[in-house]
Specification:
It is built from 13 helices and 18 strands. With 445 residues, it is an alpha/beta fold. One of its GO terms (molecular function) is tRNA (uracil(54)-C5)-methyltransferase activity, 5,10-methylenetetrahydrofolate-dependent.
Length: 445
Amino acid sequence: MSETLHIIGGGMAGSEAAWQAAQAGIPVVIHEMRPQVGTFAHQTGDLAEMVCSNSFRSDDHEQNAVGLLHWEMRQAGGLLMEMADRHQLPAGGALAVDRDAFSLGVTERLRAHPLVSVEAGEITELPTDGHWIIATGPLTSGNLAQAIRAETGAESLAFFDAIAPIVYFDSIDMSKAWFQSRYDKGETEAEQKAYLNCPMDRDQYEAFIDALLAADKTEFHEGETAGYFDGCLPIEVMAERGRETLRHGPMKPVGLTNPHQPDVKAHAIVQLRRDNALGTLWNIVGFQTKMKYGAQTAVFKSIPGLENASFARLGGIHRNTFINSPTLLDDQMRLKSRPNIRFAGQITGVEGYVESAAMGLLAARLAVAEMQGRTLPALPNTTATGALVTHITGGAEAKTFQPMNVNFGLFPPVEGLKGGRRGRKDRYKAYTDRAKADWAAWLAA
């Protein structure tokens, strides 16, 4: 086949889209502006670089919508899930990876594929012909973002996303910290001890909250406004919502027992998750922040066990952009005003590594079918991938459209099942059983 699929952006969505198309026999060109044009968050020019966290979140495909999305992508031969499984780190019930090995693995596989080429350089205008997928993610370059706004006649929506700090393991005081996953989750000992825990008593917690609230914060530029995505709030913003908010969020003390003081119940607990295969780097879970660097060092060193912490990376904040997909995209993920262009990934208003990759997978399969003169059957919204694309292409209210993680609230109900918390386990299992059957049938068709 002589026609080529062009993909702008080599992140999660662009990388998965390229793999899916190439595996289907379609020549692919990935246009990636890095490293010639950098971003605030990226450190390399590799494909599928993980910039916020090293976790793909829950891998439970029977009781969790994210785990179900993992399952669907594996069934579809997803490259990113293959690489995640290959470079997995112990993380209890979550799927965490060695981020550098993961990115390098994706890059090597795509560059080695005979139908994939990678062209460095920034695309600044919307293409007028050919088959294209824009998967530039939340850090779309200013020039391309302006071209999108000029075409759609609407301002891209925006929010601010914060990055959590990373600590060197050898600087953590293990006389105060201990290894344990919440409720000892995981089938192996490594998974059951996948997290590092730092306990706080009431006075330490209250002092920590005071320090968070008083710390110097990064200010937005003049005229720059946006809301936060609730799934990735800076820790100090959570503290501003109430002094107990963190104790019911990333610092909740339940399901953990301190072996150094087994009879003492911690008032709050800070958890760290391994960030690389060597175990030399650990990120502070849920501690995204917009504090200035000096303030971060002072505040985080007040955490028991981190008094002498050395940071491989401090937290940061960057501006994320996404389009109003319910208004701008059709059910084939095409830009209504220019149907030769599809959008995929976080720029469409999905949130999370896995969700972004899933939208890349789907956009590529839709593009391949169109290029081959075929029409794919409608993707059931009973699947995790289908629920997401249905949400962003019309299921969401356009006036209040905000980034969304996959969750069972996007799925149509299963009739005859109990609502509420007591019926949740049976309800979630019914959702995932139905989704697996429908996804398998869609792939086969």
